[in-house]
Amino acid sequence: MYRVTDLFSPRMVSFSLISFGANLLFKSVGLFSNASIVRCTSAVVVCKSFSSTSAQHPKRPLTGYMRFVKHQRPLVVRQHPDLKVVDVVRKIALYWRTMSPEQKRPFEEASLADQAQYKVEKVRYQSQLTPAQSAALKEERRQKMAKRKATRKRRELTLLGKPKRAKSAVNIFMAEHFDEARGTTMPEKMISILDDWKKLYLSQKQVYIQLAEDDKIRYKTEMKSWEEHMIEIGREDVC
């Protein structure tokens, strides 16, 4: 279950924006009156101050859109207390898309001011780091980016319908006996199943070995068909 505070993470906001495609229809867009528009665009948005201690990296400032979300969320929740958290974000995102550049300007200008301040604080923070700390942070960022890229790739392949990899004999055995495995936690259950697998005679394992061979054939057949389809639609890059 998402908390209200989770709504405005980059991931949730990205989801909310993507969900607003051509097929998104709202019968009621009268959530914000003309008076509320004036209040939004004339709101005084105070720039955040960033601390630059050696123990904490300055936080990246909010975008103009995120500032608008933060400003409007309490109003939407107050007017529509029964709305689900996702629908709250959807309403706000839809209204942002209908606002004029003049209406968005206060939020975007405040974001630009924060960005300038953030850059100054970031340089100050980095100047306090030792070479070893800088190298460690660089490696940490590299790993995060690689992990993010791999996650996006997996999601894309799932959406494109890439077949699931073939299961090994022991994987099939584990899936079949997991519910009856000894132990209360996942690691305990897996250890007990592996121990049971090792105790099986080869003749007892044979049925699972055959199932694994069958699944390998299934995977190869499905992959060949999937790769041909990817070539047809111009996505050779994922094959």
UniProtKB/TrEMBL annotation:
GO biological process, one term: regulation of transcription by RNA polymerase II
Keywords from the named record: Activator, DNA-binding, Mitochondrion, Mitochondrion nucleoid, Nucleus, Phosphoprotein, Repeat, Transcription, Transcription regulation, Transit peptide
HMG box domain mapped to chain residues: 58-126, 163-227
Compartments in which it is found: Mitochondrion matrix, Mitochondrion nucleoid
SUPFAM superfamilies hit by this protein: HMG-box (SSF47095)
Molecular-function GO term, any one: DNA binding
GO CC entries: mitochondrial nucleoid; nucleus
PROSITE patterns assigned: HMG_BOX_2
Coiled-coil regions listed: none
DNA-binding region as annotated in the record: 58-126, 163-227
Broad class of the protein's primary localization: mitochondrion
Database matches in Gene3D superfamilies: High mobility group box domain
Subunit structure: Monomer; binds DNA as a monomer. Homodimer. Component of the mitochondrial transcription initiation complex, composed at least of TFB2M, TFAM and POLRMT. In this complex TFAM recruits POLRMT to the promoter whereas TFB2M induces structural changes in POLRMT to enable promoter opening and trapping of the DNA non-template strand. Upon metabolic stress, forms a complex composed of FOXO3, SIRT3, TFAM and POLRMT. Interacts with TFB1M and TFB2M. Interacts with CLPX; this enhances DNA-binding.
Functional summary from the UniProt entry: Binds to the mitochondrial light strand promoter and functions in mitochondrial transcription regulation. Component of the mitochondrial transcription initiation complex, composed at least of TFB2M, TFAM and POLRMT that is required for basal transcription of mitochondrial DNA. In this complex, TFAM recruits POLRMT to a specific promoter whereas TFB2M induces structural changes in POLRMT to enable promoter opening and trapping of the DNA non-template strand. Required for accurate and efficient promoter recognition by the mitochondrial RNA polymerase.
PANTHER family (alphabetical): HIGH MOBILITY GROUP PROTEIN DSP1 (PTHR48112), MITOCHONDRIAL TRANSCRIPTION FACTOR A, ISOFORM B (PTHR48112:SF22)
Protein name: Transcription factor A, mitochondrial
